[in-house]
Amino acid sequence: MPDFPPITEVREPSAAVLRDRDEAERPEREQRQVRPRTEGWQQKTDATGRPLLQFASPKRGKPPVHLADLSAEERAAKMKELGLPAFRAKQLTAHYFSHYTSDPAEMTDLPAAGREELVAGMLPPLLTEARRLTTDNGDTIKFLWRLHDGALVESVLMRYPERVTLCISSQAGCGMNCPFCATGQAGLTRNLSTGEIIDQIVRANRALANGELKNSPKERVTNIVFMGMGEPLANYKRVIDAVRIMTTPQPAGLGMSARHITVSTVGLVPAIHKLAEEKIPVTFALSLHAPDDQLRDELIPVNSRWKVDEALDAARAYFEATGRRVSIEYALIKDMNDHGWRADLLAEKLNERGRGWVHVNPIPLNPTPGSVWTASDPDVADEFVRRLIVAGVPTTLRDTRGKEIDGACGQLAAADAVSAS
Ligand code: SF4
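Above: the input record for the complex with iron/sulfur cluster. Below: its predicted structure, written as tokens.
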């Protein structure tokens, strides 16, 4: 989902962050209220005049069935259909999940006769690289992928000192219609298949194996965040199937740690409860961005369906079911949601649900002069953090990554779609 700043890194808090401020202008600042609004486009609305929410994926041509879309039993059954022994499926699986290849020329353990056809049938191409952007210092690569039907999605590969994080997409477009979001503007094109989700990781692992991310501390992606295009919990089954493949040990899966996989949502409450029941201890992140319904109804349209308190109750239930501390994502937007009283209200709502179950990540937006979607002043951001910390809520101010190659996930694809039309 969450298309505010894709991924984040810890920003050193200013030395003054824990000091109370008592500026003369604070009362005036506390009352300023910029309301969310779209800039340069109009939200589609439903019959009641509310922003349209699309939960169902439009029916479009399905992507080819890929090995990653099949269970181990289905893969073996497919071999049988083709008159091949079941272990051929295991060989193909190892090539794809452990060696990150779909190239028959590299699969010399398969008989040469019929190899190309077998690979084409089981590992059909799903993603074509349409464009790639790399930051000047080489620590971030943004991939724009074209799918079989021309839809565009993106993933962002980021190098940190001790980990390599990939931000992936779960849908082409998005039906949640958030007014700040480039991805949401065109609505939902379609859900990605499990294979299309997994292939983003396999392709990134391949790029790492080829040395394309400079000075990478790891040979493969260690962390996944579902913060590219789409609302992951609106494509629930395929996202969960993909998470299961990610956490299955190699060579049958990608062998990743569940706690290094972050599933985020704008607050699809029934799906959060369902996720808790899966008992896969992924990190769960709720993109809250406002603690009061009045603002959040406008900022995150799905709030008209499930309110702040319901989303927080579901987040707390996730913690209780899994023991995993929940992340609250909070993009700080100047004079819109960055008021001290909102920090206090957020702390109150979190604390009334218990202690030690949640961590807040405020993320200042990129400065965008003249836009209502612009960064909070640094002292306001510090004050917001200070109030949460003083109230006993663990809080870390984050910074965005990849500013020079578009601040938010979704923007690159939107820019390309516009320039292609
Ligand atoms: S419109 Fe979709 S992708 Fe964009 S912020 Fe909202 S949920 Fe995330």
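Notes for the reader.
The pocket of iron/sulfur cluster is lined by residues 1-3, 174, 176-178, 181, 183-184, 229-231, 266, 410 (CB under 6 Å).
The longest helix spans residues 194-209.
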